[in-house]
Amino acid sequence: MNDRKSIMLAGLHAGAKILEVGPLASPIAPHSEGWNTYSIDHMSTAELKVKYQEDPHINIDNIVNVDFVTNNKQITDIIPKEHHLTFDACIASHVIEHIPDFISFISQVEKLLNNEGKLILAIPDKRFCFDIFKPYTLTSDILDSFYQKRSIHSSKTRFEQVAYSVTSNGKVAWDLHENRRFAFTSSSLVSAEQSFNNNDQTYQDCHALYCTPESFRLIILELNALKYISLNIQSISDTIGFEFFVTLTKQIEDNQNINLKRLELLENIYALDTNNEKYKKNVMPSTSIKYQIKILKYTLIKLIKLITKRVSDEISSRR
User: Fold this and answer.
1) CATH at 34
2) pTM (two decimals)
3) In a domain, 165, yes or no
4) Is residue 184 part of a domain?
5) How far apart are alpha carbons 31 and 157 in whole angstroms?
6) Which of 106, 195, 276, 301 stands 20 to 30 A from 19 (CA)?
7) What is the extent of the structural domain holding 32?
8) pLDDT of 281-300, one tens digit each?
9) How many DSSP H helices and E strands does the chain contain?
């Protein structure tokens, strides 16, 4: 099991009943490794293979068998009721940032998890991917999408996807230590305007959630305080590479001193954006030692690989 998987699967036993959302060809908990996993996607296995047959980044032979097909319907309407409140975990790796209606997705997952169930997420950090120049997603954005009952992305989101997405050294994601040379993914601002004005009601894939670990914590804190969701953060990692990992459960959150917590998180977001240590406060939630060790191990491996590459490059340059 690779370290990324081990972080996300920490605390799950082999017999756990798991729902994996949109695993495509890279499942976190595949049947081949003994996991009791059901998968859900927007298309059937056969349709996904046709869709991605020309994509050089997807090995269609590795696309997993899809158990439930959403067909643009609510997850809870597609998954039979006998499965509701029975899942030990729902895994969504780089999925939630694509969801037009964040609150509805979380609420549906709540109805599928048992009392001890977990929603396990891998989310890109906006600072280390093509979202870097897009504005932070705030709770107000989440609420707007919810009340608009969005099943496709807004004109604003579609414009931002085309107008402000960038690569760094030709890559759509990078880590903290890389030198950055940015370029727009689209050379045409007119294309962004056309995307904004496109009245076609078909789904256009975009990121609709631009966040960091701290700003994601703020969103979850505020949505809980306002009683839009009841899942709370059990653990959240620092950014590893270009992503961070979150586990949400049905645990009761203490909403006392809510404004103090909100201010601390906002100050942390500001501090990280400006490298201003004056404002940075220790508001990270406690996580298990096992979880922290896995994160540390993963980070050390990434660091060793980086050092090895730099040494190799230095040796090559001297030849």
Assistant:
1) 3.40.50.150
2) 0.85
3) no
4) no
5) 36
6) 301
7) 3-124+206-314
8) 554 444 445 545 655 665 67
9) 10, 9
